Amino acid sequence: MKLQLSLSLFIAFLLVGDLPDVMGYQEDPSWNCGRKVTPVDLDSEETKSGVFGGSVVGEWYEVERTMFPLQYKQSCNFFNISYVTTDNHGRRLYFVHMSGRKHTGDQSDTYLTVVQPEPPKAHFIFDFHLPKPSSYSNMDLYVIDFHKDSHMVFYSCKHVIKPYLEAYVRREKHAWVLSRTPTLNGTTLDHIHAAIANVDKITSRNLMTVNQNHC
Q1: Which of 16, 36, 93, 125 has its CA 20 to 30 A from that of 172?
Q2: What CATH number is attached to the domain comprising 80?
Q3: Residue 16 reports pLDDT greater than 60
Q4: How many CB atoms lie within 10 A of CB 76?
Q5: Could you give the 3-state DSSP secondary structure of residue 63?
Q6: Which contacts qualify for 36-39: CB closer than 8 Å, 24 or more apart?
Q7: Per-residue pLDDT tens for 43-101?
Q8: How large is the average pLDDT for residues 8-35?
Q9: Is 14 a member of any domain?
């Protein structure tokens, strides 16, 4: 049994090169998969719009994303973000309505509260309120590129442990490109793709275009 566990840990080390994660050690969440992420400052002179957190509120269209199981073949994805309040711990709370069209043609609506634990750092925690614990519960998302009147880019990466396979780990990374309009011009997309590639090895080939036609 000890030999089997040691072999499992060794394989996990080869896969991710980070035994502390395999052993359940929680590092600074901004160290996503071993690379330091520097989220934008949402209260800087370039981004703020009158109220704390006001720069991210309003309507956003999802124009591109990596493959994400909870959004399987969804189109017409749309986010309405409302700034709610600041709690006693200084965290900002946002109310988010996510809508879209499932691959079956049915409408999908999700309502959730999103926490910004260290404002103005653009680090958000999304809880999708899934019926069972999942690697997609309490996801850490970072805004890595932003213009309040144009676009917002979320990035997430984490090591996912499969309990029933002991120390087996996979590295899961995602990116979402949101826009104030249903489409973005090529120059802006090129800038966004470069920003994503600078954080992780996600290229434009890893991003799928979200259909926003006839929505």
Answers
A1: 93
A2: 2.40.128.20
A3: no
A4: 19
A5: strand
A6: 37/142, 37/144, 37/155, 37/199, 38/144, 39/121, 39/122, 39/123, 39/142, 39/143, 39/144
A7: 664 554 444 455 788 999 999 999 887 788 889 999 999 887 888 998 988 999 999 99
A8: 41
A9: no
List residues bridging with 75 in a β-sheet.
Answer: 101
Q: For residues 4 and 213, give the distance between their C-alpha atoms in angstroms, rounded to a whole number.
A: 53
Q: Which residue has the higher pLDDT, 77 or 165?
A: 77
Please tell me the total number of residues recorded for the chain in this structure.
215
Give the residue numbers spanning the domain of 169.
28-209
Structurally, the chain folds into a number of domains equal to 1
Query: What is the structure's pLDDT at 198?
Result: 86
Residue 7 host element (H or E): helix 2-16
* Closest CA relative to residue 95, chosen from 108, 109, 85, 81: 81
**Does residue 68 form part of some domain?**
yes
DSSP structure class, residue 17:
S
Q: What is the pTM of this model?
A: 0.77
> Strand, helix or coil at 12?
helix
115-123: average pLDDT: 87
Token digits for 57? Answer: 């509120």
With 0-12 / 13-18 / 19 or more C-beta atoms within 10 angstroms meaning exposed / middle / buried, residue 200 is buried
For residue 68, which of 20, 126, 151 has the smallest C-alpha distance? 126
Residue 128, in any domain of the structure: yes
Model pLDDT, residue 126: 86
